[in-house]
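Usage

Read records sequentially. Each one opens with the input sequence:
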Amino acid sequence: MEVRAMIYRKRASGEGNYEFKKISWILTVSLFALFFVLAGTVACNKKAAETQTPEQQGQVIKQGANEFEGVAKVAQGKYLYIPAAQGLDIVAQRQFSSGDLSALVGKEVKVKGQISPQIPSIFLAETIEVKEGILWKNVFTKSGEPVLEDYLDPKDRDAFVTLKDLSVDRADGWEGKGKAKIYGKLVKTTVTEGGAQKEMTYISLFDDKGKETGRIIIDKFTDYAQYYVKKLRLFNKFWFYFNIKDSVDAKTRRKTKELFHADVVFTGLF
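and closes with the structure output:
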């Protein structure tokens, strides 16, 4: 009763309104201060993220992730891709108890391991399990460190010279270049040679009007390059990185548009 009477007296004298305004002012100032602190923190975090390389950003996002589960979409050699591990290429060095790596395509798998300390885009598998019914069956256990002899580091792509406007009459457009890259389309065809059929694989080149201007004969793909060809299955054209080999003789070049032989070491969208 005494407290209630005191409140009534303060209201009557105007003192209560003053106290209420004072409290409101303090709360408003505090909210503005909190807003500016949060805004500054967000800005700092954004600036820090913008200064990181894509590899560093991916490493921050995926740091601590040591297990992925999903359907295996692509496999070649020691390389495996599942959508759950987006941005990462899974590497399993040894053979599997149930066959090679390609046997996993289309199956639900569970991969445990860690991101490579040297290559943030590589996920080193320690165990791989395949789902059979409601149970998981182990098909791979790491027994040694992987050897990435055919892996092409992104920074090493700068060593590949870009080839442009190649002509069957100008072998100097590619001879002596060594490592090169070119934008084209992968073509597989069967030819008859010496009475026998032979499968040929080309990089088909086109001009601005869509007319084929030349073909580069692919003698070999590394597993890493073939793995990325499979990952790029939805794209009609992409970049090929290769080592230039022997030129096709001038007479044959004019007849078939085949320019030279090459070994492909990587394929990508850039």
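Summary fields computed downstream for this record:
- The helical segments are 2-13, 15-50, 54-62, 223-231, 250-256.
- The CA atoms of residues 151 and 224 lie 6 Å apart.
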